[in-house]
Amino acid sequence: MSRPVLALLLLISSILCTLLSCTAPSQGQTLAQVESEHPEIIIAISYFNETLGGQVEALQAAHETLTIFAPENTAIRALPQGALANLERNHTLLQDVLLYHMLHGNYTARDLEERGAFRPKTLFDNNTVLIEANASGVTVNGYEVVTPDVFFDLGVIHIIDGVLIPPEFRSDLLG
């Protein structure tokens, strides 16, 4: 493809994206860079890297975008001691819980606010989370988004003040 044609296609896609309110993820910021800028989610990022590393690479290769709701370190540490130990011992359970924190697509805070209340599907078994946005902020299953719009190379991270647990695991993990 010639350079002028490629440039024209890029210009058209940029214009369409602007008209359709698309948001592109930040170029090149890795999870490691996010981790260094946001130490309050270092535990969540280490879990994502250790548990979902291969899946994240596959999403990158497929040019997928993600929205991640990353719990603060204090929220993870506040889990009942048995629940945290169980998650760390059971790789599959931890993976499922992490996938429940992720959505396909790139939802910025503005996108969430414009939608109001809705139930998007997570990457875990098509389960949904309840996102509610109003003048006082954005919540996910009742947990507050304390830091919105942390952009990385696959999309956007919103830091939340709780850990999202899929309904089918709540009684096992939380008692």
From TrEMBL:
UniProt keyword list:
Signal
User: Is the keyword Mitochondrion assigned to this protein?
Assistant: no
| InterPro entries attached to this UniProt entry | Adhesion/Biosynth-related, FAS1_dom_sf, FAS1_domain
SUPFAM superfamilies in the cross-refs: FAS1 domain
Q: Does the keyword Signal apply?
A: yes
Mind telling me which SMART domains this protein's record contains?
A: FAS1
Name all FAS1 domain ranges: 28-164
Q: Which GO terms describe its cellular component?
A: extracellular space
What does UniProt give as the signal peptide span?
Answer: 1-28
Protein name as catalogued: FAS1 domain-containing protein
- What is the species of this protein? Cyanidium caldarium (Red alga)
